[in-house]
Design brief:
With 333 residues, this protein is of the alpha/beta class. The protein contains 9 helices and 15 strands. Helix 3 (161-176) links the parallel strand 9 (147-152) and strand 10 (181-183). Helix 2 (131-144) crosses helix 6 and helix 2 (131-144) crosses helix 9 (315-331). The chain binds guanosine-5'-diphosphate, magnesium ion (MG) and zinc ion (ZN).
Length: 333
Amino acid sequence: MSKRKLSNQQRERIAKNQRRDLTGSDHSLVPESKLNGLVISHFGQQIDVESTDSETAGQVVRCYQRSNLPPLVTGDRVVWEPGDGHNGIIIAQGTRKSEFRRPVFGGEVKPIAANVDIVLVVIAPIPVPHVSLIDRYLVAIETIGLDAVIVFNKSDLLEKRDRRAAATDLLAVYRNLGYPVEEVSAIEKKGIESLRDLLSGTNAVLVGQSGVGKSSLINNLSEKQLAATGLLSEAHEQGIHTTTTSRLYHFPTFNIIDSPGIREFGLGHVTESELFDGFRELRSLAGSCKYRDCGHDGEVGCALKAAAESGEVDPKRLSSYFEILDSIRNEAH
Ligand SMILES: Nc1nc2c(ncn2[C@@H]2O[C@H](COP(=O)(O)OP(=O)(O)O)[C@@H](O)[C@H]2O)c(=O)[nH]1
Ligand SMILES: [Mg+2]
Ligand SMILES: [Zn+2]
């Protein structure tokens, strides 16, 4: 996608054209000089907007947003106007069908992608996955009502037997819960076809720790290099941040948003009852404890304790639930 400025000729043609309004508002309300667009990426004050109007569709123009608009994110539908020179100005935001959020330090909630319907939680043998991080993502996804898929990348690194065993155990937990699990290798292009099929017709966002291979997956889903990838630092086995902002990529049958890697994922905006519901296997146990105010902390007649003992609920998931519960209680103070 090249950044080109709209020629005067194009602008005139645009002005003459009847346009679709993708923000869902009344067509007649969009004045003629205005264009529909899609936020592709965001760098501080500057936002790359791709025109979605037929005449200029696909062209990306760097824009600023009117100060009365809320913060915009990748995937937002907008109405914009070509300005002087290279830049444009965003004058309206379309309604969001969905918004994938994560809180940043200090408890502030920050959306990272709009209008997505599926979230790919990417994990890998290295960096070693944290169950509680996976579960935090799943709670955030369940709370918003989006579909979650676990993508286990770098399957080429599973030659070592202990690593293979650990991965099998971990993935079994999520498979048993009914989450789709895709084992892939971006580098060896394994499992890529199946991932492509699963993505068909969706707007997806990739999330997960830095260094798991999100950008590499984007590059290997297509035939050409699209996203910058980072080298894993040998010493820390953590990814070097090369993706610093979310960016949307178009594929023939789907769209996918690459997001920057994160080390921590808080859930400041999630309530205790949302957390409970975010663990799908716990939902059916709501209200089944003997005491209404059960703290699920070893109390007599606790349904969670019983479910863990009978094997109905995975003990790893239950301890992850408690760990997150503790952290949201602490974040609330
Ligand atoms: N062995 C192996 N390495 C991979 C694979 N996918 C990505 N990597 C490496 O992991 C590192 C981080 O990849 P990157 O895509 O930047 O991760 P991101 O931070 O999640 O976007 C790079 O050195 C990649 O070459 C894979 O399938 N197998
Ligand atoms: Mg990246
Ligand atoms: Zn209980």
